[in-house]
Amino acid sequence: MTPPEHPQTPTARRSAQTATLAEIAREAGVSAPTVSKVLNGRADVAPATRNRVEELLRTHGYRRRRAEASRSPLIDLVFHELESAWALEVIRGVENVARQAGLSVVLSESAGRLTPGRTWADQVAARRPHGVILVLSELDESQRALLTSRSVPFVVMDPAGDPGTDVPSIGATNWQGGLAATRHLVELGHTRIGAITGPSRMLCSRARVDGYRAALETAGLPVDVGLIKTGDFHHESGYRLGLELLRRPDRPTAVFAGNDLQALGLYEAARELGLRVPDDVSVVGFDDLPVARWVGPPLTTVRQPLLEMAEAAARLVLELGRGEGAAAATRVELATSLVVRSSTAAPGVAES
Amino acid sequence: MTPPEHPQTPTARRSAQTATLAEIAREAGVSAPTVSKVLNGRADVAPATRNRVEELLRTHGYRRRRAEASRSPLIDLVFHELESAWALEVIRGVENVARQAGLSVVLSESAGRLTPGRTWADQVAARRPHGVILVLSELDESQRALLTSRSVPFVVMDPAGDPGTDVPSIGATNWQGGLAATRHLVELGHTRIGAITGPSRMLCSRARVDGYRAALETAGLPVDVGLIKTGDFHHESGYRLGLELLRRPDRPTAVFAGNDLQALGLYEAARELGLRVPDDVSVVGFDDLPVARWVGPPLTTVRQPLLEMAEAAARLVLELGRGEGAAAATRVELATSLVVRSSTAAPGVAES
């Protein structure tokens, strides 16, 4: 089997060879220019007609030909939420690649929902960018069909859920990162190591905590579920769950905080309880945001190459748009690396 | 005198009433459709022709009519640089207003140059967004003419230089912020107060340090120029200049750090020298980035309502596009406010 030319729509490609714009028009009982108007996102089509045409485009898996010429010089970048310095690194990466390609970046926020709204998909279909990059965001079936019918390729970065094997995606080696963070603590001599995870619906979060478990198990240490707290990757949950962990009579001597923001929340919890980092509790983050170097003490963390991941996502989506390379199951994972600073040390005198 | 309809181009408006597209075409020795192509940013016009037409559009101050209908549903947002969490607040503000208006946000970075490149201006002229918001970025004369000829309104946010009285702009009360920060330190009993400023070419930076001087002078305290260091608003300059200040035999007991990133650099310098904040040195920042609450000790700072400023800039540019309100000299300044946390205290025992 040869890989399909446009990996995200293997079914679409097959039927695209038979269903033409004229056939769609005939079946919808409208003129070919009307189908064109729908494809171009023009407003002067009756909603009922438009829905009928969209439905036929979808069922026939229609794909626009010669898309290159009619594309806007834009790349769409969609965030689940624009809340952390995390997002800025991603924006810079995409912007770097876009600028070199003479393209501009359109930014959207799916505003806390994991799937961007219908209006967004319509706008994208109308402006036909060179590609769409989704960050921790997902497309539903009809949105994928809409983009596919306009030959707009898309790539998912660090997917929150399972993107499916036919969606190209870029991520980091989250499991290895969780493993490296926890091994570092084990090697320092810690035996009671807590964890604060991200939301369990996000694969990256699951992978990190699985790496944490694997490190404990391979070191022959017990996994105490009471020491694993489920957070949401925000500062507040690091603080709140940090208080829970550090108030225990058998409190952990080290915590893998899931990400940098939760690590900073944990710092605050420790300060409030009069505990010192790393003397009383060692802390490891994940991401290596700029702030990780600036806090006191500077944070030991797992570096995720966010800028490079975003650049890779942008290059991949442009390649897909040109019909180059990239097999169906493209999943690129860039390596994470442990950055040891001053927030980790051997278990303190309080324990000995 | 009545204010001109489009404040940024009082001269343009006068001549627009005489020079039509047909006249421009005649003078350029080309057809009217060719002038249209240039206006629409189409690639199929010879460079020499294009330059001639652009020059005539500029000298005649031509302004496209009925621009509303042919606009893309976009707002352009241009940053000087996308480096700090600062930028993210601004993006969120513009995105909020854009989403409500059914528009998407195109993001560009002028990559360290204060004036975005020529390619950028061409792209904007071609896509004709509803408006352009420039953050710490400036347009040169030809770029302003290019946007004006396409009836693309623009607003400058927190200008780096003097935007001129005919460019609408949004800022914060930087002078009052510098005054409030320094008065707070004076009221705590400090008499040797240092300052780390931003780049002197940025008005916001000048205004802050002028507020600092005013606070000292009105309190009858001498202004010691040896205690005023010129930084660049990055963490590194706070660290480096912080070391210079804190290594002096007559070191200041408090420092107004110019912005939050420099304040964090100063924290690092203090740690390195074994000085405690606020016991040995009080620190005040400016901006109130999310991280200001999270560092240890939480940072006393001047809150700049970045999100609200960005929302105001977006609303203003949309109003200008509709030809509403907004007089020529529109300059909106939103109020700053002092947020007192734990990085400031009375001069410590080390001094007494």
Automatic annotation (TrEMBL), chains A, B:
SMART domains: HTH_LACI. SUPFAM superfamilies: lambda repressor-like DNA-binding domains, Periplasmic binding protein-like I. Residues 19-72 form the HTH lacI-type domain. GO terms for molecular function: DNA-binding transcription factor activity; transcription cis-regulatory region binding. InterPro entries: HTH_LacI, LacI/GalR-like_sensor, Lambda_DNA-bd_dom_sf, Peripla_BP_I. PROSITE patterns: HTH_LACI_1, HTH_LACI_2. Keywords: DNA-binding, Transcription, Transcription regulation. Pfam families: LacI, Peripla_BP_3. CDD domains: HTH_LacI (cd01392), PBP1_CatR-like (cd06296). This is Transcriptional regulator. It comes from Streptomyces spinoverrucosus. The lineage of its organism: Bacteria, Bacillati, Actinomycetota, Actinomycetes, Kitasatosporales.
